[in-house]
Amino acid sequence: MNEKHDFIAVFDSGVGGISVLRHLVRILPGERFIYYGDSANAPYGSRPTREVRALTLAAVDKLLAEYPLKALVIACNTATAAAVNDVRAAHPELIVVGIEPALKVAADHFPGGRVGVLATEVTLREEKFDTLLHRFDEDVTIYKIPAPGLVELVEKGKVDAPETEALLRKVLSPYLGKLDAVVLGCTHYPFARNAIRRVLGDNVVLLDGGEGTARETRRRLELAGLLENGSGEVILRNSSPDPDILRLSRELLNQED
What we know:
The chain is α/β, with parallel strands linked by helices. 44% of the residues lie in helices and 19% in strands. It has eleven helices and nine strands. The chain has helices at 18-27, 49-66, 77-90, 103-109, 121-125, 127-136, 150-155, 162-172, 193-200, 210-223, 243-253; strands at 7-12, 32-37, 69-74, 95-98, 114-119, 141-146, 181-184, 205-208, 233-238. A five-stranded parallel β-sheet has the order 4-3-1-2-9, sandwiched between helices. Strands 6-5-7-8 form a four-stranded parallel β-sheet. Strand 7, helix 9 and strand 8 (205-208) form a beta-alpha-beta unit. Helix 1 packs across helix 10, helix 2 packs across helix 3 and helix 8 (162-172) packs across helix 9 (193-200). The longest helix is centred in the N-terminal third of the chain and has 18 residues, at 49-66. The radius of gyration is 17 Å and the shape is globular.
C-alpha cells in the first residue's frame, strides 16, 4: 500500500534528468525525491533498444529494493521511448510518468511552422516517437535532428564549453534560418541551452518537456490521494563511482535559471 510520505523516484541515464527534477521540486516542494542517474552506462541514446529496456528495468528494481516508492518519473526521453510500457506492466503498484518531446506545445504555438526535434538516435527511431510525430506532422513541418556526442559532453559538465558549441554548430548548421522552434528531446539538452541559443539565435524558441512532466506527476499524485506536504527532501545517487558526478549533479540541481 503506497503512502503519502513514500518517495518519488526520478530516473535518468545520467545527470540530464536533473533538468526535470528541478521542475518537480518547484511544483512539489513538500515531496521526498530520490534521484538515480545511471552515468556508469550512459549514454543510452546510441544503445540498442533492448539494452536500454534492460538497464531501465534493472534500475527500477534497484530503487524499489532500497526505498519505499509511490511514484516513478522516467526523466529520460530515451528510456521512456524504449521501456515505459514495460515498467508499467512490471510495476502496476507505482504511478509511472514518462517524458516525451514537447511537440504538442510546439504545434500549438507555431501552427504551420517549422520545428526541429533535437534528440538521441534511440528516441528518434522508436515507435513511440513516430506515433507522436504523426499526431502533429500535418500541423507543423518537423525535422528530426540527432545530436550524437552531446549527452557525453553534458555528463562531463561541459554544458557551455567551446567543444559543445562546435558540436552544436555542426549538427544545427543545415537548419539555420529554417526553424521557428526547437524541441529539446533529451533531458540533458536543456543544460546546453545557452550554447544552443548562440548557434540558433534568439528568434528560435527552445522547448522541453520537463515542466509538463512535473505537472502530470502532480496531477497523478493528487488523483491518487498521495500528495505530501512535508518539509521536502532530495537524495542524489548515481551508478558511477566517480565523486565528480554527484558534485556535478548538485551543481546542476542548484543552477540558477
